[in-house]
TrEMBL record:
Residues 216-356 form the Nudix hydrolase domain. InterPro entries: DUF4743, NUDIX_hydrolase-like_dom_sf, NUDIX_hydrolase_dom. It comes from Piromyces finnis. It comes from the Eukaryota. GO terms for molecular function: 8-oxo-dGDP phosphatase activity. It holds the Pfam family NUDIX. This is Nudix hydrolase domain-containing protein. PANTHER family: THIAMIN PYROPHOSPHOKINASE, THIAMIN PYROPHOSPHOKINASE 1.
Amino acid sequence: MASQLTKISNLILPLHSNFLSISSNSLNKHINSSVKAITKRNLNSSNLLFKNDNAINIKKQKSFFSASSINKDINTTNGPKVKTLERINHSILELVKLNNNFDSNIHKIIPFYLDTIMLGIIPDNVFQQLKKYNKTFGKNEKPFSISAHKVTFSENVNTFEKRGKVMNDLLTHWRDNKTFSCLKGWRDELYPIFDGNHEIAFNIERSGIALFGLRSYGCHINGYVEDPETHKLKMWIAQRSFNKQTFPGRLDNIVAGGISFPYSPTETAVKECLEEASMPYEISKQVVPCGAVTYISVENRGISVDSQYVFDLKLPSSFQPKPNDNEVEGFYLMEFDEIIKRLKNNEFKSNSGIVIIDFMIRHGILTHSMEVNYLDILSNIHRPIPFPGPNFIKMKNKK
């Protein structure tokens, strides 16, 4: 078991120790001195910014972008009014690290298995509540098999339907007892969880997926416009509703949404275009799949192990998106100088920001000659995820 856990730890070690060119000895000294003020159960990502890390030191970080066209106070413009966080002027590398902030040297987790395949990582506070819940059942009726180093389903919970019921019963119990605040946002949307054969092992309520650190999927659409004469690109930016439970009032992609059962990424993209931006099918069907961004993010709601499918959509200059539900305050067409300024002011929803950074890299707006941390940025927005991925081709066969 000890050797098994060592392998698990290696799979989910933070990127800055596995994939970035930083001395491991130096990093270990830095981590040991930095984590004293951080409790293992604290899920506030602001504590994870290593102030002494030269790669992301705010005072020493040089800006590689020109923002001369931006007013000193961007909130005096006609653009969206966004309340900035206490700390602003982040570097691009710092932004992606704040999003991809899971560190197994800091965060205490318990692996969640299906048979011999690890599906997720459970935060310690969730693990403690799971043990309490499991004890309320008789010996032969316990839904989970729990040890100090591992959680899995009990032997009798061995089908797609049974696993889904066990997870739904658990989350419903926690919701009704107000155990975790994230369940206040119950969506009645099911997310698929895949096994080692890329088949759906079970479905789980969307609002509870981060409690188990299970892999989730979303899609983000970069809606952009190209000037026909200068070929300069601009991007449509959405401002999230101030009434949304998550990231109220923050800036976002023109369209984004979680991929729920039984939709595929492309089906979700097209559906969300209509729901969020009043975009007709004649336009939305032209979305171009452009890969994905991947990261593991520690948040107040748990651990988000995310794969966000990315789509580019070149929009006609005559098209103006309009809110079609209560999730968006409005849309703004921005030049990239302004987008960069607002990114550094932390006005964007964190994962939407890295999708835009990915867009800038792919379209030559952010290049290796402009950003000294170019490769480190790439590593932090394409983090390997050690859990099974989806097979959306077969997904609809599950009823």
